[in-house]
Amino acid sequence: MLIFADTAEIDALREIASLGVLDGVTTNPTLIARSGRNFVEVVAEICALCPGPISAEVVALDSDTMITEGRKLAKIADNVVVKVPLTGEGLKATKVLSGDGIATNVTLCFSVNQAMLAAKAGATYVSPFIGRLDDYGADGVDLIARIRAVYDLYDFDTQILAASIRNPAHVEQALLAGADCGTMPPSVIKALYEHPLTAKGLNDFMNDWKKTGQSIL
Ligand code: E4P
């Protein structure tokens, strides 16, 4: 599963990128607002920082303006993926942008039927929102598994980008459900490798090593 960071904070991204396990980045209007930065500038910086797919979301509600915005965003860098909401207008825009050869991420997906339509519109990625479905009282991870089953059954090649991941358990469940990619805040990426037994084990090894009086270098 590809690991995407769900943030527009450059410092946090730089730190995560230095781990060597970052495959891409997703942003949305909320994350851009939170960064306090100019949208186009921050997307350009993220694209330079991470060579993988970088999602930048349109904000128009009608397909014509979404297409114009999407074409502008796609010019920022070769690795921009235009993020489009899963509405009727968004599906129309996805079809046109995909026809232009522009990579698309159809976002705000909450059902198998929506995911099927995104695939038929030619989406490169579809983003089912795990955490928001859980908050709503449904089962976000189960949606990932059901989309996986349908995409495999009908040979859709749209990639499933598990989004709205809130904790490491969501990541493990998305992996097992067959998501192609998962996007998560930098805090969740860090929580994937941090484990109390790793910290304790390392502390014990360091104390015992000191007792030997040796040095490797
Ligand atoms: C990313 O593409 C989504 O916009 C993001 O994962 C949503 O996460 P949230 O539900 O935690 O805001």
Report what the structure shows.
It is a single chain. With 217 residues, the protein is of the alpha/beta class. The chain has a single domain, classed as Alpha-Beta Barrel (TIM Barrel), CATH 3.20.20.70. The protein has eleven helices and eight strands. The chain has an eight-stranded parallel beta barrel, surrounded by seven helices. The longest helix has 17 residues, at 196-212. It is globular and about 70 Å long. The two termini are 37 Å apart. Bound molecules: erythose-4-phosphate (E4P). Erythose-4-phosphate is lined by residues 6, 26, 28, 107, 127, 129, 131-132, 163-164, 183. Erythose-4-phosphate binds next to α7.
Structural class: alpha/beta
Q: Provide the number of structural domains.
A: 1
Question: What integer value in Å does the Rg equal?
Answer: 19 Å
Coarse morphology: globular
CATH architecture: Alpha-Beta Barrel
What keywords describe this structure?
binds erythose-4-phosphate, 11 helices, 217 residues, 53% helix, single chain, 8 strands, 8-stranded parallel beta barrel, alpha/beta, TIM Barrel, globular
Question: Outline of this structure?
Answer:
With 217 residues, the chain is α/β, with parallel strands linked by helices. The chain has 11 helices and 8 strands. The protein has a single domain, classed as Aldolase class I (TIM Barrel, Alpha-Beta Barrel).
